[in-house]
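Discussion board: Methods & Data

I've been asked by a reviewer to show the raw model output for two of the constructs in my manuscript, not just the figures. I'm not sure how much to include, so I'm pasting the format here to get opinions. Each protein appears as its amino acid sequence followed by a line of discrete structure tokens. Is this the kind of thing reviewers expect to see in a supplement, or should I convert it first? Here is construct A:
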Amino acid sequence: MSDTVIPEQFGHVNLTEAAQSCPGLSADEFKRAFRNHPAGVALITADAGDGPVALTASSVFSVSAEPPVLVFSLSAMASAAPTIIASKTVVVHMLSAANLDLAKLGAASGVDRFADTTAWDRLPTGEPYFPAAQARIRGEIIDRVAVGGSTLIVVHALEASDGAEAEPSPQPLVYHNRTWHSLDESSRIQ
């Protein structure tokens, strides 16, 4: 977002200094609060030149429609973190309940997420992707912001596939209280 001007009052905050002046919640309290906040599930893929990586994320959200920008959080402990941070582009797969296997694959540790060569392919632009995903957005990483033990990845969306050919009315995959859930018409409250 090099063309974006950030007013001086919105400058970067030194989190260490902020935490010392006002400690805030403990990590456990913070996690406990967010366990009750459901989130959609996505699979992020990238390749910085040393082979493809993938990880499951529930921190993906849109920031702006014009320009089309999304963000996600990447833990420094994730094995895919160094590759994603070094990548120029990523593919964000929006998962439906039918894609639970992809969510579990990206969340598993110590496995080769690309061992099944029939489950994934490369886009014409070179990025790895999983065709079975409900929808996907290919984007250019335009900023990386270190925050504590994580990095906020800012992505300018370049292309999208809505997955309508795979499943016209998918049941969204949601992560809530450390468990996978799907939403359907019976979950509607209004």
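Construct B, same format:
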Amino acid sequence: MKFIDEAKIEVIAGNGGNGIASFRREKYIPFGGPDGGDGGRGGSIYAVADRNINTLVDYRFAKLHRARNGEHGRGSDCYGKGAEDIYLRMPVGTLIADRETGDVVADLTDHGQTALLARGGQGGRGNIHFKSSTNRAPRQQTDGEPGEERELKLELRVLADVGLLGMPNAGKSTLISAVSNAKPKIADYPFTTLHPHLGVVRVGPERSFVIADVPGLIEGAAEGAGLGHQFLRHLQRTGLLLHVVDLAPFDPEVDPVKDARALASELSKFDPELADKPRWLVLNKLDMIPLEERAARVGDFLKRLRWKGPVFEISALTREGCEALVTAIYAEVSARRRLAGMGGANSEDDAGVPLLEDDPRFKPTAE
């Protein structure tokens, strides 16, 4: 499924109805007094997070959303009817910002979450509110308030526990298809992935996490090379990044160490906070390297890169090493959920799943 992850809309709330200055006029009642009613409230516009919606495609075509105005007040103490509010259903993970100021209006992260986008105007007051012992025939009334108007930018950022990073053809799509239910396009040419993919990785009963795959990043992406940085926003909500490295590139002139450093540099240019997220190194395509050469190839790569984080050796094609990687990821994700108080897997569910530092399958870091 293709992600429509950006849209620009305008929301206009309804104006409040005007109050009215009116007096009771009946036979044999010459001084009936004021009876002007208030105006009705204008309709407001809300955004509602809906997990059944996956894209912002509806808002690419419906750009203007206007609520109705409140009715004006009438005589005989008749108040104007308030207008109905409008609720715009949006995908969970939508970030709503003001186009003029750039301020974040709402961040829809939970199903059913509601956020006010534009408030409707309050109705005006009729002259019935201005009567007093010294002003028995008031002719004052107030007009309704205008509704708010806003130009908004909608940005969808997918919600995932783990994000995949890597150069084109590093094997990210093969990895996500091997460990999850996602079925991305896989081919032997660069930029096969043109939009994000989400997959649910099931470790066991009621034990799972969500992984996101985005298009490959190349050197110069900050200047617009390749697909640029337009999809990296989808990784900003993840708690863990997997840096997938092609350890056996088809082109012998390609240096995996240089590519790994270039990707880290592009990540820092896009968002320093994203670059500071926990990042694990996943050395892929070991099936392309003869068994007797693997240790030397991996040792040389780690020595030149001077990597100080966790390292995993896998083959996404043959699924070698994938089980150990998935188990370690789930332990890390579960620990983060518990620390964040998000109601992650309980201790019963985590029984038998070692923490990363206690996992004998975890490869120690190399200087």
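Answer (T.O., handling editor elsewhere):
This is acceptable in a supplement if you add a one-line summary per construct. For B, something like: The CA atoms of residues 95 and 107 lie 5 Å apart.
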